[in-house]
Structure formats: structure tokens, C-alpha cells
Design goal:
Radius of gyration: 36 Å
Shape: elongated
Structural class: mainly alpha
Order of helices and strands: H
Helix content: over 70%
Number of helices: 1
Length: 94
């Protein structure tokens, strides 16, 4: 009879240890969420700042380099077409 009582007491102790572990884990999770919230906010602000800088840099590059690329494309595309035609003509004659 005492063996059964001992096993019952052992099961109760293991259950209490599991409950205590779960409570401690929940407490640590809460503490780390509260402690790391400012760090998460800082990274969020940093992300927003980097996105804003990327947008500004992209717009500046599009405004500065865009017209130059457009003019270069308008000048070089016909030259490339004529070069391709000349290459085809030479290849056809050879």
C-alpha cells in the first residue's frame, strides 16, 4: 500500500514540477517581452529609416540618371540596329 502511495506522491511531485516549470517559463517570456520591446521598436524605426533612405536614393538616381540613360538609349539603339544589320549583311556575303 505504501508503494502505491509513494508512486502517487511521485506523480504529484512531477506534476507540481511541470506546473512550476511552465509558470517560470511564462514569467521569463513576459520579462523578456517587456525587456526586449524597446529593442524591437529601435529595429523597427531603423527599418523605416532605411526604407525612407532607399526611396530617396532611388528617386534621386531615377531623376539624375534616368534622362541620361534615355538619351543614351535613343542614340545607341539605332547604332546597334545598324551594326546588327551590317553584321548580318557581311555574314550573308561571306
Amino acid at each position: 500500500m505504501s508503494v502505491i502511495a509513494g508512486f502517487f506522491l511521485l506523480v504529484v511531485m512531477i506534476g507540481a514540477a511541470c506546473v512550476a516549470f511552465a509558470l517560470l517559463a511564462g514569467l521569463f517570456k513576459l520579462i523578456f517581452k517587456i525587456a526586449l520591446f524597446p529593442v524591437a521598436l529601435a529595429f523597427g524605426v531603423l527599418k523605416l529609416a532605411l526604407v525612407a533612405v532607399g526611396v530617396v536614393v532611388g528617386l534621386v538616381l531615377m531623376i539624375v540618371i534616368g534622362p541620361a540613360l534615355l538619351v543614351a538609349g535613343m542614340v545607341l539603339l539605332p547604332l546597334a540596329l545598324f551594326g546588327g544589320l551590317a553584321w548580318a549583311a557581311i555574314s550573308a556575303m561571306a
